[in-house]
Amino acid sequence: MSDKPYQDKAVIVTGASSGIGRALALRLADQGAWITLAARDAARLAVLAEECRQRGGKAIAVPTGVTGEAQCKALIERAVAEFGRLDVLINNAGIGATGLLEELPDLTLFKRVMDVNFYGVVYCTYYAVKHLKQTQGRIVNISSLGGKSPLPYNSNYNASKYAVHGFSDSVRMELAQAGVSVTLICPYWVVTEFHERLMDKDGTPRGPQGRAIYSEKTMTADQCAATTLKAAARRKREVLMGPGWLTVWLRIIAPGLVDKITIEMVLKPLVRRAEKTQSKE
Ligand SMILES: NC(=O)c1ccc[n+]([C@@H]2O[C@H](COP(=O)([O-])OP(=O)(O)OC[C@H]3O[C@@H](n4cnc5c(N)ncnc54)[C@H](OP(=O)(O)O)[C@@H]3O)[C@@H](O)[C@H]2O)c1
After folding, report:
1. Angle at alpha carbon of residue 178, lines to 34 and 24, rounded to 5°
2. What is the Cα Rg of the chain in Å?
3. Are the C-beta atoms of 239 and 182 separated by less than 8 Å?
4. Quick check: 87 and 138 in contact, CB under 8 A?
5. pLDDT tens digit string along 143-191?
6. Is-catalytic flag, 157?
7. Which of 157, 162, 188, 214 is catalytic?
8. Paired strand residues for 205
């Protein structure tokens, strides 16, 4: 494999304005890729595009909300119009919300998570496929270990990522003959803005205290980006990060036991913490 597999490759990155998406864009720029940066925050994208150009890549910023099908279509068309081809689509934009299903005031938040994490992937992929077939390109879906081994208190997020897995595994077979690969990336915790933005059942972001779960050992966005780009270059099916293999393997051989342990070690403490917070308010 070349040491710069993305040189002169046209790549779209959704969710590029922060975290893993931003780190992917910078690494792609270092290799001389032609990058289309998508997210809602136009100002951040413009700054990032300039940074990518300074690092040796070509870059355009295309402000896009991935919950809008028409916006996703326009994103793909704009990227192909600018660079004349599409080699890689990285579906990375994502959000999350926590809380017990029964405590959600209604299902608006649940649907919002599905819209961003699942339908955003579907829309972009649908409009990109015909271009990716021309280049024997690559689809990279940034999922989560939550798409392989779910946690309680996260049903919306887990459901959205499981949906991404089913979609990816199906589309991979459909596109195999055309030479288009689909790589699923399943990170454990990564230091980004994700946990600050993580919403409670009312849609309120956790804010800076969301970062309390990170330690010095937590994977950085750059490390995650490096592993992702290497895996996609090699057309790997799936990458499990952190304790991925262990949790997935345990869930296959003893799902009931894993449920019991998870209820004791994850669900009950979360519920107790939420009750304590509520009683203070
Ligand atoms: N961090 C972790 O621990 C972790 C673990 C496993 C999986 N992941 C996955 O990694 C991916 C990237 O997340 P991250 O950790 O880098 O979090 P992040 O720093 O919060 O970045 C999320 C990105 O998604 C974009 N986004 C959110 N809603 C959007 C929408 N409606 N339309 C377009 N873009 C939207 C955000 O940009 P705008 O706000 O500007 O739109 C931002 O660029 C997500 O799919 C997440 O599920 C993260």
Report:
1. 30
2. 19
3. no
4. yes
5. 999 999 999 999 999 999 999 999 999 999 999 999 999 999 999 999 9
6. yes
7. 157
8. 199
Provide the pLDDT for residue 277: 75
Q: Which of 41, 140, 194, 206 to mutate to test the pocket of ligand 1 (most atoms within 8 A of CB)?
A: 194
Give the residue, out of 36, 190, 220, 228, with the most ligand 1 atoms within 8 A of its beta carbon, to mutate for a pocket test: 190
Tell me, in angstroms, the distance from the centre of ligand 1 to residue 4's CA: 26
Tokens of 216: 């010095």
What was the pLDDT predicted at 281?
Answer: 67
Q: Which residues pair with 186 in a beta bridge?
A: 240
Which residues sit with their C-beta closer than 6 Å to ligand 1?
Answer: 14-21, 39-41, 64-67, 92-95, 116, 142, 144, 187, 189-190, 192-194, 197
- pLDDT beneath 70: ranges in the chain: 281
194 CA distance to ligand 1 centroid (A)? 6
CB 138 within 8 A of CB 88: yes
CA nearest to 89, candidates 182, 227, 18, 190:
182
Is CATH 3.40.50.720 correct for 10-242?
yes
- pLDDT for 43 equals 98
What is this structure's pTM? 0.97
Amino acid found at 255: P
Q: In this structure, are residues 212 and 171 in contact, taking their beta carbons and an 8 Å threshold?
A: no
What is the model's pLDDT at position 52? 98
- Whose Cα sits closest to atom 31 in ligand 1? 65
